[in-house]
Amino acid sequence: MQRRQSSKTPKQPLQIHHKNQTDLSAWRKGGRIDPEKSVQNHQSPTNQKSDSKQDSLEQALSYFEKVQDHVSLKKNNVLQKHLITVESIALQRGLPPEGFDVLLNVALSGKLADTVNTRLLKSLVPASVIPETSVVSSVSWLCVSKCSGNIQLLFLRWLITMFDFIDHKEQLHALYGFFFSFLQDEKMCPYVCHLLYLLTRKESVKPFRIRRLLDLQAKMGMQSHLQALLSLYKLFCPELVTITLPGKMKTYFKNSEGPWKAAINAVRRRNQENSPVLQPLFLGTAQPQSRKRKWNTQLIIPASSTNKNNLEEDREKNRVDLYSMNESFPVEQLQTFSQLLQNIHHLEFPSQMGSVLTNPLLLHYMNCTKDESIYLRLYYWMGQTLQEECTWCVADNNQYEEEFKDFLETVYKTECFLQEGFSSCEEFLYKSLPLWDGFCCRSQILRLVSWIPLSSFSEMKSHLYDPLAQLFFTSSLYFKCSVLESLKELLQNWLNWHVIHLDSESDSQVHSLNTTLSGLVNVVAELIHFVGWISTVALRLENNPTFLLYFILDFYETVCDMYLRYNLPLLIMPPAGVFYPALLSMDSVSLNQLCYIMYRYRTNLVAAKENELSKTKILQFKFSSQTYQEYNQYIIAMVGCLWTSSAFQKDIHPQGLRMDDELLKKTTVQEFKTSFNIVYHPAMMGYAVLFLQQAWPDDTTFNFSLIKGKKWNWYLEYLYAQGLKGLKVFIESSINRVSQASHSKAGNVQV
């Protein structure tokens, strides 16, 4: 970024003043009320150390402001003393806004050695905000050849890292062309692209800039930072950027915050430990903040003015202008839904995309607008944050697990609000699940899994199913149930997406095969097969617990109704390793669930068969004969168990209950044929005992053979009255009881 000077006379930096700019001398002399001091006056003597540090900082700033000639660090005790003061205070509590103008100017003016300038730039950690005027003033030093290229590079990295701390952005936006002109420097180009990415608006996209980026790409090759800027340009003006760019999200930019990350974290932690009165002054907000700049400082939309009264006056004065079509509406003034509707066409999103996550009005706007640049910016910011702050992917982040949990929870709530998953979250899960221990942030991670967008099976198998299965089989029963619940919600979200987009015009203009009907059917089928497999293994590992069986059957309650409820031409029966443990379960809840599931399977299959036979329209998908065959095998087994007491003779499923009578006699069970009907079934015997007590209160022998004929019908009504609705609809739909005679005949089966 070195520029040739047109004159030997040293060029002075541009002096840009702002009405809200605080004069440093007035701040030091007491001409301005310092909020920190006003609070400190009410503090106990134990906090008087803060006053001495404040005085030391004022002396250091005064020294650096008066530096005129080149000063060496060696054997200069005064410079060393003030430099250490700035570094220690910046690390402990951050620097006040008034100090940035002085320190930036001296660091970029070349008056000090690069060693000192580097240390100063690395010390520029804000306690609250950074004045925009200080940044603009420091940028003007780049026009002269005063500081070295390394210092310029470090300044750019600092500017990118602290971008969200800058109180305003308008003057920085005005310098867009200035920053763009430095793309020719190959060393600076990645960081300049990153800064331009943060500053780009639709009006920033110009044909000559696109041509310049394409020339650079032809010269340097396919660089990720150039692709990022071109992608953003293409979203704003697709008619100007005609080249094909990679659609897959990836990490576009290098991490720029390394030198300041530890200092920012330390300041945030110490400010949290301060009293509630001090927190608003140090952090610039009345809400307790986290050490993380990445999300917590961005979740609050920055106000357009530091003076609230001025903001209210400007709002009243310029109310007409704010609603003008020629001006953008400031998001910090967006308070009501009616304001959103009136200004939806000229609403400009904040530079801090993290602030969108907790603003329902902006999320409503995202749902309504088709501006993909908003999603691109949000995905980039979120992807960077997830990658850098993951507590099990990044060393020394374990102590911040609670903060990371809060962030993941916020992302999940945003996905629920928008009713769609973020591709950046999908990539984060694919990268982090192989390293995950299944314990850290468990609830949040599994919730994010439920919003993974539709992907090809090959990607999901290697990146999701395989690592999830390893954790599933080696973890606790509770974890297994949590995974099954998450996968059920994932299936429901996919099916809801299909219903919403079924009749939309955009469905015919899909961007990938994964969002076509055939792609959806394949991906959903693989998910169901995966759940069936892990459920079968889990039931064997855990010895068929009722708690686990409930979550498995809950998943299949969604599967059995996909055709009628979600209009998806797909039905998959549960595997035998799930069906038979449910049929022979000791718990009536599981048996009742299974009966309801089989009833819904029958309803869906009958509707599908009727549609095939009617031939009113050409069907793209038809259920295979294997699906009908599996259903019939299961129905024969269920009716044989619960009703006709012939399961051991008539069950034809390869993994079913069919056994020879000779083998059954060796069990020494006297009435083995009736062992699993609705009277003797282990899950139903408790109801049979209660029924006998009510029907024959004086009989204490519990003679179950009395439940036959009319008593059989009374027993059925008793079961229905106990809330076994699944059993009721199954018997009424799957057992032929055309007449009372046949009903009585069925009831007279020897029990």
Automatic annotation (TrEMBL):
Residues 1-55 are annotated as: Disordered. Residues 40-49 have a biased composition (Polar residues). It holds the Pfam family CENP-I. InterPro entries: CENP-I. Keywords: Centromere, Chromosome, Nucleus. One of its GO terms (cellular component) is inner kinetochore. It comes from the Eukaryota. GO terms for biological process: CENP-A containing chromatin assembly; mitotic sister chromatid segregation. It is found in: Chromosome, Centromere; Nucleus. The keyword ATP-binding does not apply. Belongs to the CENP-I/CTF3 family. PANTHER family: CENTROMERE PROTEIN I. This is Centromere protein I. The gene is CENPI.
